[in-house]
Amino acid sequence: MDAETVDLLVIGGGMAGLSAAARVAAEGGSVVLVEKAERTGGSARFAGFVWTTPSVEEMRRVNPDGDPELAVALLDGFPEGVAWIRSLGVDCRPQVPVLGFGRGHQLDTNHYLDTCERLIRDRGQQVLTGAWTKSLVTENGVVGGADILLADGSPLRIEAAWTLIATGGFQGDPGLRAEHIHPRAADIGLRANPQSRGDGLALGRSVGAAFGKKDAGFYGHLMPAGVSLADPARFVDLALYYSEHALLFDTGGERFVDETVGDHLTAMALLERPEARGLLVADARVHREWISASYVEGIPGVDKFQLCHRAGARSAVAESLEDFASMPEEWGYPGTVIRDRIEEFNAVVRASGCPAPGRLLDRQPLDEPPFYVVEAAPAITFTFGGLLIDVGAHALSAASDGRVPIPGLLAAGADAGGLYWRAYAGGLAPALVFGLAAARTALAGTPSATGH
Asked: 31 with 6: CB under 8 angstroms?
């Protein structure tokens, strides 16, 4: 079996893996990146903003149960991450608001990913695509590389001072979704690349890495139910971002969540309702101000309702609230109950009251006809649970209750857990920041069995 030794072996070629590998190569280190798909980039190729919260206080507000040390490291490392992107000649536009509470930058993600790969190759380092990582190599408790199957089926052992797991999470595996998120998660839509199936999780746990946090949830969006997501162009086009200004009803006709928290959170709430589907109801005001409007500054607005309708989603336009009593029986919703709940909601907010469940923002009535109805379902982009890490991207040992690093092993991106717990403040930013942290750790020296 052929062998070679490098400073850093990167398993996974998405945002985190390419950032780490490119940074090590740029600093003169030796690196091999292994990607099981035929092309690098992963789900990052479908994204277009790198963003997070503008302050630690805001992060604590939106993500109170996440790891506070990782949160601080993310915010401290974010400016350096943006500077790194720009240093490669990639356009990273001026800062704009994101999701109301975040701040970030639009960028050509594909340009960034391809530039990282080109930098790695130009520095004489290797990018192996179509290659599968069979197992990690360990000796005396230290991870020292991995055994790989190359695209042609031949084996290769890559020995490395540091090994970074960055395979993108486990959202592509229905069984793992059911085990770690919710039994109904096995059947939800996937708005991500299909390659991230828990390979990194399995590799890390095989050498004793800690997994967490329990019930951390996932990042995703409400999407029109029953519509195929096979075309990645639909990941953004059909995402029901406007839902925070609408009302969401379960199959019993009841509101069950404050919609204004955003559909990245209501998607998790809907998963836990019967059949994991619901009716999203908006009125003419919401259609005018939100359904047809730009979601993020700089991105042209499109009529989401029309996109869903043309895609074959279960949808309708009701000329009045009374039309809800005529809802088709096969839809499986009590139309009269939903009509009554909308009227009750309107009465409460007109009286300046707080409806139940709460309504933190947009307490305006939904009373301007016509009414726009779309059946929604949750779809997953990436998982929050992963291998627990510290601020240096060291993977932590389960034997130490997640307090002691496993020598030689790093994790970043969606393979790393702990940062978010049923909350979200950016996906590309943590992948970038902790990918660069992994690069710094690898460039700092060789690990030992007794410490970093």
From this structure: yes
Q: For residues 369 and 202, is the Cβ–Cβ distance under 8 A?
A: no
Per DSSP, what are the bridge partners of residue 159? 5, 145
Burial of 214: CB neighbours in 10 Å, binned 0-12, 13-18, 19+: exposed
Listing DSSP states for 314-336 in one string gives SEEEESSGGGGGG--GGG---HH
Residue 116: predicted pLDDT: 98
So what's the pLDDT on residue 298?
61
Note the pLDDT tens digit of each residue in 329-383.
Answer: 999 999 999 999 999 999 999 999 999 999 999 999 999 999 999 999 999 999 9
The predicted model gives 399-409 an average pLDDT of 92
d(CA 260, CA 408): 43
SS3 415: helix
C-beta neighbour count of 298 within 10 angstroms: 11
Percent of the chain with pLDDT strictly greater than 70: 96
- The predicted-structure confidence for 135-187, as pLDDT tens digits, reads as follows 999 999 999 999 999 999 999 999 999 999 999 999 999 999 999 999 999 99
Q: In what order do the strands lie in the sheet with 49-52?
A: 49-52, 102-106, 96-98
Report the alpha-carbon distance of residue 17 to residue 40 in Å, rounded.
Answer: 9
**Nearest Cα to Cα of residue 188 among 265, 264, 271:** 271
Task: Select from 200, 204, 191, 129 the least CA-distant residue to 170.
Answer: 200
Q: How many other β-carbons are positioned within 10 Å of the β-carbon of residue 403?
A: 11
d(CA 364, CA 156): 62
Number of H helices, E strands in the chain: 12, 20
Q: Confidence band (pLDDT; 50, 70, 90) for 447?
A: confident
Q: Is 19 helix (H, G, I), strand (E, B) or coil?
A: helix
Q: Region of 346 please: left (phi>0), alpha (psi -120 to 50) or beta.
A: alpha
Length of the chain: 452
**Helices within 88-207 (DSSP H only):** 109-122, 174-180, 199-206
Over residues 229-253, the mean pLDDT reads 94
How many angstroms separate the CA atoms of 286 and 260, rounded? 13
**Six-digit token string for 25:** 């190569």
Residue 41, phi then psi, degrees to nearest 5 = 115, -40
* DSSP 3-state of 382: strand
CA distances from 198 to 28, 131, 170 (A): 31, 16, 4
CB neighbours of residue 126 within 10 Å: 18
